[in-house]
Write a structure and sequence with these properties.
Layout (H helix, E strand, L loop, with lengths): L2 E4 L4 H9 L3 E4 L6 H10 L4 H17 L7 E10 L2 E3 L5 H11 L3 E12 L2 E14 L4 H10 L2 H6 L13 E5 L2 H4 L4 H11 L1
Parallel strand pairs: 1-2, 1-3
Antiparallel strand pairs: 3-4, 3-5, 5-6, 6-7
Helix pairs in contact: 4-5
Length: 194
């Protein structure tokens, strides 16, 4: 299997790659995601396009500096009736996000993009539908108390493989999409690339 560069700080994405036999070195792209999202929302871009473009931006930025190496960029966005919900920057914000999602169905869109020499060579976008249980303010606060800061700010308001699964009434879609990396498609692409 190839050695690739992961243009992301995400420990979960690195772990998924490693567990699937894909060696990767990490080199975060450090792009201003919020500024890019705002700009694209002004242009009426769909959540799928925003997710794909952010993944592509990250991959292209790092691959410009790494000749002939494959760079993987990834991004996930939450779409609640057309509103893009970003990662919280405080616990207060996390509670507001949970209140917004409370009892409602939303979509989690994940994109992965591979670039080489500064250009995209492959991409995949998938979405999952998640319906959150109707919870009281007390239950939401109790959930947040169980989540460590690092997890809260890294994975948005829920970690589906951890405590987050208890928030949902219904989950439709691929677990890998929800965790932020379409690993099966990535493996298939890399296998055929060799």
């Amino acid at each position: 299997m190839h050695n690739i560069i992961l243009a992301s700080k995400s420990k979960v994405r690195k772990k998924i790659l490693n567990e699937n036999g894909i060696n990767c070195t990490v080199e975060p792209a450090n792009i201003d995601e919020e500024a890019v999202k705002l700009n694209m929302l002004k242009q009426k871009a769909s959540p799928e396009i925003i997710s794909k473009n952010l993944a592509e931006l990250k991959a292209n930025k790092i691959s410009q500096k790494k000749n002939e190496e494959i760079v993987l960029g990834a991004d996930s966005v939450i779409d609640l009736n057309g509103e893009i919900i970003s990662k919280p920057s405080s616990r207060k914000e996390a509670l507001e996000i949970l209140k917004k999602l409370n009892g409602k169905k939303h979509y989690l869109i994940s994109s992965a993009c591979m670039s080489k020499n500064g250009s995209m060579i492959w991409h995949h976008t998938d979405k999952a539908a998640l319906t959150m249980k109707k919870m009281s303010l007390e239950e939401l606060n109790s959930y947040l108390k169980k989540i460590k800061d690092e997890a809260l700010y890294a994975y948005n308001v829920y970690q589906i493989e951890g405590e987050g699964k208890n928030l949902f009434l219904k989950i439709e879609g691929n677990k890998n999409t929800i965790m932020g990396l379409p690993i099966i498609e990535i493996k298939n692409y890399l296998k055929n690339y060799e």
